[in-house]
């Protein structure tokens, strides 16, 4: 699936994942393999989620604090892992009526480290 994150929008190729509860995207700087990595930190609408926020507390055991940022480390059953910051940004999806739906303050994991073997895919979106 193709989505856009950020303001101005940056295109991201993602996998629809029915087996996990985390939406994540690779973010610069990125330590791992794969194709192009969007620079979401240059987005005008990007915001890291703060440690004591209600969004961070809602993430439960997947979240931990590093200074003031809400961080995550997420593992899959095949042993692969990813980690870094929970973030907010604008998500735009492909619309069927010519008007793409836009979601402001969309919560996702901004991954800077990953051992997930995803090729040129930029992230996972849970369904």
Number of strands: 9
Assess the beta-strand content as a share of residues. Answer: over 45%
Largest sheet: 6 strands, mixed, barrel
Determine the fraction of residues in helical runs and give it as a percent range.
under 10%
Please give the CATH class: Mainly Beta
Succession of helices and strands? EEEEHEEEEE
What would you call the quaternary organization?
A: single chain
N-to-C CA distance: 12 Å
Query: Any idea of the CATH topology?
Result: Cathepsin D, subunit A, domain 1
Give the mean pLDDT: 80
Q: What's the number of structural domains?
A: 1
Q: Which residue ranges are poorly predicted, with pLDDT under 50 across at least 5 consecutive positions?
A: none
- What is the name of the CATH architecture? Beta Barrel
Distinct helical segment count = 1
**CATH H-level name... which superfamily?**
Acid Proteases
Shape: globular
As laid out across the biggest beta sheet, the strand order is: 1-2-9-3-8-7
- Judged by helices, strands and strand pairing, the structural class is mainly beta
Taking Cα atoms only, what radius of gyration do you get, to the nearest Å?
Answer: 14 Å
């Amino acid at each position: 699936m193709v989505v856009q994150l950020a303001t101005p929008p940056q295109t991201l190729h993602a996998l629809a994942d029915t087996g996990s509860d985390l939406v994540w995207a690779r973010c610069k700087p990125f330590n791992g393999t794969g194709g192009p990595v969007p620079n979401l930190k240059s987005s005008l609408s990007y915001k890291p989620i703060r440690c004591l926020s209600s969004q961070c507390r809602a993430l439960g055991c997947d979240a931990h604090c590093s200074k003031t940022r809400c961080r995550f480390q997420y593992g899959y059953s095949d042993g692969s892992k990813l980690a870094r910051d929970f973030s907010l940004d604008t998500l735009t999806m492909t619309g069927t009526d010519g008007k793409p739906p836009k979601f402001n303050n969309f919560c996702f994991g901004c991954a800077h480290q990953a051992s997930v073997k995803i090729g040129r895919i930029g992230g996972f979106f849970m369904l």
